[in-house]
Amino acid sequence: MKRISVVMFVVCICLTLVAWTPAWGKHKVTTFNVTGAGTGSGQGTYAIGIVADDSIMGWYIDSSSVYHGFLRAPSGKITTFDPTGSYGTSPYGMNNGLAITGWYVDSNGVNQGFLRSAKGKFSAVDVPKAVATVPEDINTSGEIAGYYTDSNGALHGFLRSTKGKFTSFDAPGAGTGKGQGTGPGGFDCLTDAGVVVGKYADSSGVNHGFLRAANGTFSEFDPTGSVNTYVTGINASETVVGVYYDSTGLFHGFLYSNGTITSFDAPKSIATEPVNINPSGTVAGFYYDSNGLAHGFVRSAKGAYTEFSVSGAAGGTFPASNNPADAVTGYYIDSSGVYHGFLWQ
């Protein structure tokens, strides 16, 4: 599950020949809130994913701190949803056909997977004999990737075909203890060709990146100096993006392609977290400045950076996804700790 952690560190980043363009006022920013979203600290609207037509999905937290799903159309119309029996809904994947997958918490506090069609019909996505199922990605054809937990609390990856057949998989180096195992990343970690990427935790609880090819073979990887590696996206060219932590706890972005890893940090950054990569290789993410405030950035395939922050984001700007047209969605936090969605174009 791709949750964003807010951590502040200090690092000296030396970058040469890097293009940097502050983007305040040069792009259109649309902010939005779901009707019914709470207005207390930690409540509000969390935009998580954007697809080609600028449709946005995510969740909102109401005044009772319960999670619900939403879909925002390009026109700005917002539709809210919850599967029957949900006590908290977390959508995490959406394709260009507007099919949405994710999970909800049932009355027993167990995660159950769901698929919501473009017409709003729900169906179950639950791995047989799993204790809990967490779908996170859906591609154009409707294949779904995610992970499930077994009776020992270990994680295993799965791929669900369009006909509902489940294929379970584990990275070769994955541990089998509680909290260990294999977990695909969220939203854009499954390609139309069936390639899945994510992280696995070994028997020592250390996280590493993996790429599972369509034929089931694995590549495992870590940037040099990484003590924990997390994958956050892959595009059709099979360029992988992610974030890694070094031995001092600092975090940095990286790209992985054909066995080659390129590390990067946004200019002005004390810590950098990329969250997604689009078909052209543009990366979206956020960085922390020397005051510990988060700002958004996009990094072109050639390494040029554009910075942006949403007006009123006293608590930071956090991109979550970008689409083929370089539109970015995410959320920002106001001075009261309330979350709001945004669209940056």
Compose a concise summary of this entry:
This protein is mainly beta. It has strands spanning 20-22, 29-32, 44-50, 56-61, 67-72, 78-81, 89-94, 100-105, 111-116, 122-124, 132-138, 144-149, 155-160, 166-169, 181-184, 196-201, 207-212, 218-221, 228-234, 240-245, 251-257, 260-264, 271-277, 283-288, 294-299, 305-308, 317-322, 328-333, 339-344. It has a single domain (20-344), classed as YVTN repeat-like/Quinoprotein amine dehydrogenase (Methylamine Dehydrogenase, Chain H), CATH 2.130.10.
General description of the model:
The protein has a single domain, classed as YVTN repeat-like/Quinoprotein amine dehydrogenase (Methylamine Dehydrogenase, Chain H, 7 Propeller). The chain is built from no helices and 29 strands. The chain is mainly beta. The protein has a five-stranded mixed beta sheet, with no helix packed on it. The chain has a four-stranded antiparallel beta sheet with strand order 2-29-28-27, with no helix packed on it. A four-stranded antiparallel beta sheet has the order 3-4-5-6, with no helix packed on it. It is globular.
